[in-house]
Amino acid sequence: MSSSLVRRSAFTGVLALACAGTFAPSALAAAPVDSLDGDLTPLTLLGTNDFHGHFTKDFACTVASAKAEYPDASFISAGDNVGGTPFESASQQDNPSIDFLNALGLEASSVGNHEFDKGFDDLTGRVSSRASWTYLGANVYKGGTTTPALPEYKVLDVNGVKVAVVGAVTTDTPNMVAGDGVAGLTFGDPVAAVNRVAAKLKDGNAANGEADVVVAEYHEGAPEGGEATLSSMQAASPVFNNIVTKTSGDVSAIFTGHTHQLYSWDAPVPGGEGTRPIIQTDFYAKYLGVLQLGYDKASGKVTQYKVTNRPVSAPSDACASLPAYTAAAAVVDSANARAEEIGKQVVARSSGPITSALKADGSRDDRLAESNLSNLIAQSYVDSLNKPGRTGSVEIGLMNPGGVRADLVPDASGNLTFAQAAAVMPFNNTVATREVTGATLVKILEQQWQPEGSSRPFLKLGLSKNVTYTFDENKPAGERITSVLVDGKPLEESKSYTVASNSFLITGGDNFTALKEGGAVSDSGLIDQGLFVEWLKAASPLSPSYAKQSLSVVDQPTELTAGKEASFTVSGFDMTSKGAPANKSVEVFVDGTSVGTFPITTSSSTTPPYPANHGTASVKFTVPADASGDALVTFKAAPTGTSGGFPVTIEGGAPTTTPTDPTTEPTDPTTGPTDPTSEPSDPSSTSEPSDPSTTDEPTASPTDGTSTSGGGNPSSSSTSTTGPKVETDGMRNEQAVTGLAGLGLLLVAGIGAVVARLRRTV
């Protein structure tokens, strides 16, 4: 994102004002300016959000310098100061993060959902006792009541003016933390809560609290920032639209958080004149919001404001003389030294980075897209619980993208440390299992499209490698998942499957409420972070896989006719994890018979409907004349090995064998999928990182148009190919026929009695 201030004119929100509801005319009539008039009293607020324990000397110097520049400034936050933190903080119970913010003089903060990660008692006990600031939650009530469970506001003395900060948190909080953490609490409408408190603070009755100026701290915000406009984000998110248009005119400025975005917009004040700022400062202490309100003491109004999202920079020599900086820097040094001792142990080796999906600007944590790290974690759940002496019989692993907080990036020697591994999942959830039916699993996948009003419209689940699925994002809600294959076979709606995940997701977190339709939760009692470190040690050396497990298929057929033409479009072959190459071609099979190899064109869908799909192929082929009955259409892309498929019924041909997916190896449900890269090894070994070219995983070389995985080689096509011919390594498609045909005969010869055909169930 640009480090410059993101500004939008007040005009962008004018149309939205019509939906604001009815308010009494406000006395506020503020305007954005480049410099406050000299006859106004400047009220400076320094804001942060979603700090998540990222204590650095850079941020310390930025805050301390701003406080030196504006001596009367108050430092406030929109929540998620602790929880979801890097190893340096998480390994020490986030105590260094609290001490760091104390040193910088944080005065007030709305609670975020992550403040509840370890439970309400931990928040109101250990955390609040250590913190010098006040946590605010005007919409957090004792269960079934309207009695506040937390302080609703705090009045600060800012340059001699009483400024009240009112805090509120997203109503999604119960869906984003373990159930026990928020037991006995109710999370109400944040806007209604802010308005209720603001009205009291401005009603002239000193008995219920009074303030000259009111600002809101919402741990909720717009789904996008950067070049997005205020009006577009209001249209995209009803929750954010309510914040913009329905927050009372008694509120002079709105700080937001939770969605990890950078923006500063000028929004019309509902029921009044002028505008007010709506601000978010990105996340992980990358920016510091600097807001100056111009207060007219004679009229008691805020008439001007100036706002800047100031990028964090390296410490200057001048910072060394600032007490706030030196105190915070001492916390950084002490915490890092202790964490280094804890985390420097090498636990695994990898031939390359294994990461979350990357956004268009190259930053991490695109939760809309599939990633090899989320898939790897999902696989680790299956393998770990299927070890002797543990739960066993786990068939499917699931991972929520929001739980992946750091990437696995090896050093020059290929080493991965304990600190790196621990930082990936810092929440210390337990790993648990649950039985769900195939029909419920489809519902779970459907819920990747989040409910209307959610902060994020889509959340991409990580899956164990034995699961692939197709979808059509253009279909209505509840009909988008068009097929699911488990162990290369069509999902059975009535069959029970044992799934494993962290305790947060398995109990319906992140709005994946369909998981609650399953059987009772069986908690292993094993902590996900520790289990993942153990798995990495056993799986070392690792090699990143760029094979995707979900594909968008438009015009996906359910019935085909032998000898007739079939056509459809497949998208989403390319992963965006770091180092992922673009796929060049995809080979298509009908019940193991290659029917063509087709070029994949570079493409990207970056706007709703989600998810974004990278890499598209137009598929057109003639159905084999001897095909009949239930069959599978499957794909294998090169060079990554991205695969998938869907069941069909073929009319008019000779009988065929039971459909199986030639691109997927069956998994023994008693032991979990076997990962050829996961042989145990000594993480302290001095051997070089594994060479992807020597493993059974597909290579990631973007210059090699071939695949190292079975039927996915685009140079192995049938003579019945009707798709465009693709030359690979100097070999034409027709020249590779003999090898694949021979392989197909061997596979057929090795098949025993024909099992009952599986009908399409999804």
UniProtKB/TrEMBL annotation:
Region (Disordered): 638-733
Domain 5'-Nucleotidase C-terminal stretches: 360-517
UniProt keyword list: Hydrolase, Membrane, Nucleotide-binding, Signal, Transmembrane, Transmembrane helix
Signal recorded as keyword: yes
Start and end residues of each Calcineurin-like phosphoesterase domain: 44-261
UniProt key word RNA-binding: no
A matching Pfam family: 5_nucleotid_C
Composition bias, Low complexity: 655-707, 714-724
Annotated signal peptide: 1-29
Transmembrane segment boundaries: 736-756
Annotated family: Belongs to the 5'-nucleotidase family.
Protein name (Swiss-Prot/TrEMBL): Bifunctional metallophosphatase/5'-nucleotidase
